[in-house]
Amino acid sequence: MVSHTYFQRKEFFEESEDTYPVWVLFGLAAGKFRFWIGEQSGEAGPGDLIFCPPGCTFKREMLSPLELHFIYFNIAGSQPFMPALQLPTVLSHPLDGKRLASNYAYLRKLHLTTDPRSFHRKQMILNDLWQLACENWEGEQQQQELSNFADSEDSLMNQAAEWLYRHAYTPFGMSELSRSLGLSPVQLTRRFRKSFRMTPSYFVKALRIRKGAGLLLETNMTLDQIAAHCGYENGFYFSRVFAQLMSVSPSKFRELNRV
């Protein structure tokens, strides 16, 4: 960490764009703004972490007043204007909202402190914010790898796999997909199994349970909350499917794998 500044209510940006000699982190606790960093752009809101590498132009447009943590930092081994890392995206939205909120609360308390002990504590919090961002990026990469898995010589089944991936975490009926492809449910299942050596329902189940396993390890969500994020109606049904695929209950999985 080089410096940390906390804005309880920032109503406008003094500069619509800037370039920094070190890494910059915008940690949003409230409010929204649009951003453009290199070739990436988007809208950032509460719970988002936005990273700007050194030497990159950071353009922004205020949408609503921000509660903002503004941090300058360096990464070990990096040189000025030469980012040592290529980020998957400049924006990360950590799943563990409680942990993020706790980090923000401690940063607010330590705002404007200058003693070495307080600076060391802020450094530890910055390290954890980076870890939260990495966990989010790694989770998105794993999901992308799963989506890329579905690549066969049957172009129609590739379309089916892409559709399933997009809808996996929301309730849907398999008949909806088969109708859109002009196939009966039996034809869809047969062709999908031939292409990917699994049924469409198993493909969706694997996506959902993998996401659920990540949420069990990375968050303190209840089973009902995790079920909702994974496309299941309730925690009881999620728990039953999880145990079938993983050979262990969700609660036991969380207990065995959390450190």
UniProtKB/TrEMBL annotation:
Entry-linked InterPro entries: Homeodomain-like_sf, HTH_AraC, HTH_AraC-typ_CS, RmlC-like_jellyroll, RmlC_Cupin_sf
Domain HTH araC/xylS-type: 158-256
Keyword Transcription regulation on entry: yes
Pfam families, per database record: HTH_18
Assigned keywords, A-Z: DNA-binding, Transcription, Transcription regulation
Highest taxon, organism lineage: Bacteria
GO molecular function: DNA-binding transcription factor activity; sequence-specific DNA binding
SMART domains: HTH_ARAC (SM00342)
Residues annotated as signal peptide: none
Cited PANTHER family: ARAC-FAMILY TRANSCRIPTIONAL REGULATOR, HTH-TYPE TRANSCRIPTIONAL REGULATOR EXSA
Protein name from the UniProt record: Helix-turn-helix transcriptional regulator
Organism of derivation: Paenibacillus cremeus
